[in-house]
Amino acid sequence: MDSTSQSSWRINASCRDADPDGLFVRGAEQNRAKAVCMGCPVRTECLAEALDGRINFGVWGGMTERERRALLRRRPEVASWSDLLEAAKRDAEVKVAVS
Fold first, then answer.
1. Binding positions
2. pLDDT tens by residue, 14-70
3. What residues are designated binding site for [4Fe-4S] cluster?
4. Which HAMAP family does its entry note (predicted)?
5. How many whole angstroms separate alpha carbon 58 and alpha carbon 77?
6. Measured between alpha carbons, how far is 67 from 99 in angstroms, rounded to an integer?
7. Which of 2, 4, 51, 63 could form a disulfide with 81 if both were Cys (CB 3.0 to 4.6 A apart)?
8. d(CA 24, CA 42)
């Protein structure tokens, strides 16, 4: 993904007009923050940025920092989460189109 598309996804984010402090919370409040991500059109791009950038705090792409750390530990071989998640997204779209 080039630098233009890396930054342009943010304008389509469901949270773009939300209070940023609401996305950088702890405990049960994280469930409310994650709900903002459900149905977001750029959830994949957001999650990829957090994983590739090893962002340690906040809810990104519907995952908490703890969930992201666990995923990173399970998949240490992934060099580019952006590439992996975009490929998975394309594959899912093809399967839906064929069905």
1. 15, 37, 40, 46
2. 999 888 888 899 988 999 999 999 989 999 999 999 999 999 999 999 999 999 999
3. 15, 37, 40, 46
4. WhiB
5. 24
6. 31
7. 51
8. 18
